[in-house]
Design brief:
Elements (H helix, E strand, L loop, with lengths): L2 E3 L2 E3 L2 E3 L2 E3 L1 E4 L2 E5 L3 E7 L10 E5 L2 E5 L13 E6 L8 E2 L7 E4 L3 E5 L12 E5 L4 E4 L10 E4 L4 E4 L10 E4 L5 E2 L12 E5 L2 E5 L2 E2 L2 E2 L3 E4 L5 E4 L10 E4 L4 E4 L13 E4 L5 E3 L11 E4 L4 E4 L13 E4 L5 E4 L10 E5 L2 E5 L12 E6 L1
Antiparallel strand pairs: 1-2, 3-4, 5-6, 7-36, 8-9, 9-10, 10-11, 12-13, 13-14, 14-15, 16-17, 17-18, 18-19, 20-21, 21-24, 22-23, 24-25, 26-27, 27-28, 28-29, 30-31, 31-32, 32-33, 34-35, 35-36
Length: 365
Amino acid sequence: MPIYVGTNKIKSIYVGTTKIKKVYVGTNKVFGGGEINYYGTLTPLSFAVYTNSGASLGDYAFIHGGSTSTSSGTVMPTLWNYNKSLVYGSTINLNRRARHAGASNSEYALFVGGRNNSGDVTNTANYIDKNLVNGTTNTIHAAVVSLAGASSDNYAMFAGGSTPSSNSGTSVYNTSLVKVDAPRLSVGRYYLAGAHIGNYILFAGGRSGYDNSNVVDAYDNSLVRTTATALSVKRRELAGASNNSYAIFAGGNSSSGTSSTTTADAYNASLVRTIAPVLSLRRVGIISVSTPFFAVFAGGVENTVDTASNVVDSYDESLVRKTETALGSKRFDGAGATVGSHFIIAGGRSQTGSVRADVFAYSFE
């Protein structure tokens, strides 16, 4: 909620030299959420990749895998990491994966599924902890691509995917890296999106058989599944991200062809759905990032490669949408992650069809 003095909107509040991030009257927040600022470019990835995946854990933003070419490129095993100072660390090799998913709980980040360098689809799972100790752990529900991941303090959860038929399986890893049981999705889907809000992990939309889906499955802290209010529009290849107040599902393809959409649906901690302000540009292949104050949707493509975008839209805790400073170059199908008070956007495919290695950083407060 903004504060005004006369007709002037207050952007920052200080007590002495200390900047105040939030102001409450009772339990009602009347100011807060700050702003996003473009930080600049970071050390690039050592290989240009797209269909890579990101995850955040402790002092690190991780970017993993992806393919080096849109035709017969190499699928990479590389795990790149950037610390809170945005310094690029030594690379680590995990399993080779593209079109996979990443997610984290409070103790581990995991990268699972996808296809390997031979083109085979895999059910393997890699983990890494806060000290960069890494390895493989229990396999996921099936060998799938185009699955979704979602992160929470208690669980890193993965759902759906293509085998190539629509899969309804779920895989949940707790903070002891134990794989625990959870109900299957109510409808098998791939090209779905995941996000977390309050006590719930949500999986929304996707492709089921020959039709797009508007189904939203919600899992609480006990992994009990409920079905939330459906998305306002059936769509696949949508993106999910959250801030402290909402899980937001934005963009995607709303038809059987290449009709991307600007639609955004938001769910609060009680699973009440609100139709949020639309994206500033209709897109699929969006790179999404969750931060405490902002859900971020960066890049994407309208229809064909030559309509790739560098637009960055953010939603604050009041569902106010703002268009931030654009990415340094247009891209889609890249990866993002958060570390400290920054988020990064890495890799992806450009409007010329080339694959990217550059990394852009933004600060938030």
